[in-house]
Amino acid sequence: MEQSKFNRLMKTCIKCQESIEIETRFCPKCGLDQNQITLVASSSFLITLCILTIVGSVITIGRALLYEIVASAVEQDYYRGWIYFWSSGGTLIGAIMMLQKKINGLYVYSISQVIYLITIVVASFSYGDVSAEIAFFVAMCFFLPSLVMLYLYWLKVVRQHLN
């Protein structure tokens, strides 16, 4: 005995709003792939991450150069600005590669981001006792968003576009 249309789980087509069974991949009326919306949404998510990374990398490159200019007037052996500069350049290159759907961009981004994160941790512990709490707070303002971005790039929904 065939189940009635009312007893089956139903959904509506994302294009024409036709009522279709929930397991149906292609709409019988318009033919649209119902999984297509998931791919479009995850592609938009990747593009958004890459744009945020590009903007953040350019800002960090500028910040790193400013650090180097100020440090050169005060101390001779400052090196972290250049690490920030090169690691941000790597995240910038990685984001551009990921916009081109290249999986290697994820690896370039990840290595550069890990170097950046390690440098932030080292920098936060290099200040004296007087400014330790302030240095830790400032470091966390850079560290946490960078860590979240690294995590978001490794989500399955992002990686499926990078082949």
UniProtKB/TrEMBL annotation:
* Source organism superkingdom: Bacteria
In its UniProt entry, the species of origin is given as Fulvivirga marina
Arranged from A to Z, the UniProt key words for this protein are:
Membrane, Transmembrane, Transmembrane helix
Looking at the UniProt entry, the stretches that span the membrane are: 39-61, 81-99, 106-128, 134-154
Q: Tell me the protein's name.
A: Zinc ribbon domain-containing protein
* Keyword Transmembrane in annotation: yes
